[in-house]
Every structure is written in C-alpha cells, then in structure tokens.
C-alpha cells in the first residue's frame, strides 16, 4: 500500500525547474517574431517610406487598381490624372505601388 502512495507522490511533483517549463513557450515566441512580426514591420516601414517619398509626376497604382499620374499632393490626399483632363482625389494611404514595367508588358500582350 505504501508503494502506491510513493508512486503517486513522485508523479505529482514538478519535473525540472520553473524556467524549463517556459523554454518551449519562449522558443515559440522567437519563431513567431522572426517569421511573422519582423517581416511585417519591415514591410510596413518600406510602405511608409514609399508614401513619404511620393512626388508630382510619379505614376502610381491605388489599392482599387486605378493607375494614374500624380498631379497634386497634400498630407492626406493625392490628386491623380487617370485620363486627359480626368482627375480624382484618393487618400494617400491607398497608394500601393509604382506600376512595374513587367505589368505593362503583360497588359500589352493581352491587348
């Protein structure tokens, strides 16, 4: 009878120190940081730098897929000329990218 009591008492005691239980949790956080958080922060910083370096005459694409040339800039908006004499205003945060040469080549092949 005492043999069973000693076996149960040994099983309920914590195995290892307190820090060894947190090592897997710490490793998971490190993996998440390098695979998810850090690249996302880097991409956000690049987008912010892109938005601050916009200037008149740049050809851009908005988040809605509208291509145009910047004719005016303010702190929060850009004025785009999307056709001759057709201008629209868009929020600066919706500017995604400068259209690349590759996308123009694909569009020319389709058209």
Task: Note the topology.
Elements: H1 2-12, H2 18-52, E1 59-62, E2 67-73, E3 77-83, E4 86-91, E5 95-97, H3 101-110
Antiparallel strand pairs: 1-2, 1-5, 2-3, 3-4
Protein name: Sec translocon accessory complex subunit YajC
Family: Belongs to the YajC family.
InterPro entries: Preprotein_translocase_YajC
Query: How large a portion of the residues is in β-strands, by DSSP E?
Result: 15-25%
Instruction: Outline the biggest β-sheet.
Output: 5 strands, antiparallel
CATH architecture classification name of the largest domain = Roll
Question: What's the oligomerization state?
Answer: single chain
State the order of secondary-structure elements, H for helix, E for strand.
HHEEEEEH
Count of DSSP-assigned helices: 3
- Poorly predicted runs are none
**How many structural domains?**
2
Mean pLDDT: 83
CATH topology of the largest domain: SH3 type barrels
Shape: rod-shaped
- Strand arrangement within the widest β-sheet reads 4-3-2-1-5
The CATH top-level class label of the largest domain = Mainly Beta
Name the helicity range: 40-55%
Count of DSSP strands: 5
Keywords: Cell membrane, Membrane, Protein transport, Translocation, Transmembrane, Transmembrane helix, Transport
Protein name: Sec translocon accessory complex subunit YajC
Subcellular location: Cell membrane
Transmembrane segments: 19-37
């Amino acid at each position: 009878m005492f043999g069973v009591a000693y076996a149960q008492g040994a099983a309920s005691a914590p195995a290892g120190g307190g820090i060894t239980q947190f090592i897997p949790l710490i490793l998971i956080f490190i993996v998440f940081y390098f695979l998810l958080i850090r690249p996302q922060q880097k991409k956000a910083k690049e987008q912010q730098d892109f938005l601050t370096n916009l200037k008149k005459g740049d050809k851009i694409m908005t988040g809605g897929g509208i291509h145009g040339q910047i004719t005016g800039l303010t702190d929060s908006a850009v004025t785009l000329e999307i056709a001759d004499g057709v201008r629209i205003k868009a929020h600066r945060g919706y500017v995604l990218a400068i259209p690349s040469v590759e996308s123009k080549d694909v569009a020319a092949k389709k058209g």
